[in-house]
Design brief:
TIM Barrel, 355 residues, single chain, eight-stranded parallel beta barrel, 11 strands, three-stranded antiparallel sheet, alpha/beta, globular
Length: 355
């Protein structure tokens, strides 16, 4: 267990030893990975968007049984039951609430009233300014190099513009995998880094081993950004299924899309009324079309097929570009220790240039 070598606004705010965040990847960031990260001294984020409330509570209890360190839960701010999920975090003393979209001001206020740290993810300086004005404690940005839903602006440009726009801690994600990246982000002025694909490819990740090996076989050109899965730009591994989706017409994709949407409805226990309400909220919050809403409801099942069931013929595999430079499967502790050690060495080397 590495002692604290780097103290930043993030470590002070959350109470973790190291400014390293394991992001809340759907179907990937479960109790084992989250607790592994927390015990290593980083901030593990539990992914809850694909869980029922009962499943989320069980997962929180399991994480607390595996670690006594701070951790967080990633939430969908536009979900109809977002307030109920936030109350779960309060009731169980979860340290951090992270959000993929901006939560409403009253939700932020409720969480802060109970000492829960609120960290929305943002994709532009103006969004960072908005949530900071509403009381968010920190923000996470993800540059275009990152996996899953992503934007077109690279981290090296997005990060400094957000840092210039707000005076709350900023966590940088998208393209990070080692201590050099952490050192660079801290030099920019970030309070820490978030890593998704790098944590997915650890021994503590519950992703099936054959799928991990498939990730490791991909190079720097092994990912693609497509909107054919859920109507929004989504970075994933370049697989035969993805090529087929990109080449298939919208009409031919309709049947499989509806079947997966029905399967997600059954698995989640959501009523048609709740699905419709969540769809309206997503449409209002993200300016999406109704066709995109149908695709978005279908996405969790495609991700589940690949990341949980290991069926790469039926599932998609979200991935950051860093997959092309990864060649091993460390434990969370091994990963965090070497990231921190390398960052300290790089910062000391850089400091030696100052005369």
């Amino acid at each position: 267990m590495r002692e604290q070598l780097l103290r930043t606004p993030l470590t002070d705010l959350v109470g973790v030893r190291h400014p390293v965040v394991q992001t809340g990847m759907g179907w990937v960031a479960g109790p084992r990975l989250v607790s592994g990260t927390a015990n290593a001294g980083g901030l593990g984020i539990l992914a809850s968007a694909t869980m029922t409330i009962a499943e989320l509570e069980a997962a929180i209890v399991e994480v607390k049984g595996r670690t006594d360190q701070p951790f967080g839960v990633n939430l969908r701010a536009d979900a109809g039951d977002a307030a109920d999920r936030c109350r779960l975090l309060v009731d169980h003393g979860v340290r951090v609430a992270s959000f993929a979209l901006a939560p409403k001001p009253e939700l932020i206020a409720m969480l802060k009233e109970h000492d829960v740290v609120v960290v929305p993810s943002v994709g532009a300086p103006k969004h960072a300014v908005k949530v900071a004005g509403w009381g968010a404690d920190a923000v996470m940005i993800q540059g275009g190099e990152g996996g899953g839903h992503t934007g077109p602006v690279p981290t090296t440009l997005l990060l400094p513009t957000v840092l210039d726009a707000v005076d709350i801690p900023v966590i940088a994600a998208g393209g990070f995998f080692d201590g050099r990246g952490l050192a660079a982000a801290l030099s920019y002025g970030a309070a820490g880094i978030g890593m998704g694909t790098r944590f997915l490819l650890t021994r503590d990740s519950a992703v099936p081993d054959p799928v991990k090996q498939l990730y490791l076989e991909h190079g720097l050109d092994g990912t693609v950004v497509t909107d054919k899965v859920d109507g929004m730009p989504h970075r994933m591994l370049r697989t035969a299924l993805v090529r087929e989706l990109e080449e298939t017409s919208a009409v031919r994709r309709l049947g499989p899309t509806v079947r997966r949407t029905l399967a997600f409805k059954r698995m989640s226990g959501m009523s048609w009324r709740r699905l419709a309400a969540d769809g309206r909220a997503m449409k209002h919050g993200g300016d999406r079309s109704w066709a995109q809403m149908v695709l978005a409801a279908n996405t969790p099942m495609m991700l589940r097929a690949g990341l949980v069931e290991g069926d790469t013929n039926a599932g998609v595999l979200a991935s950051g570009q860093v997959v092309g430079v990864l060649d091993d499967l460390p434990s969370c502790e091994e990963l965090v220790d070497r990231v921190v050690d390398q960052a300290v060495a790089e910062l000391r080397r850089a400091a030696s240039y100052v005369g």
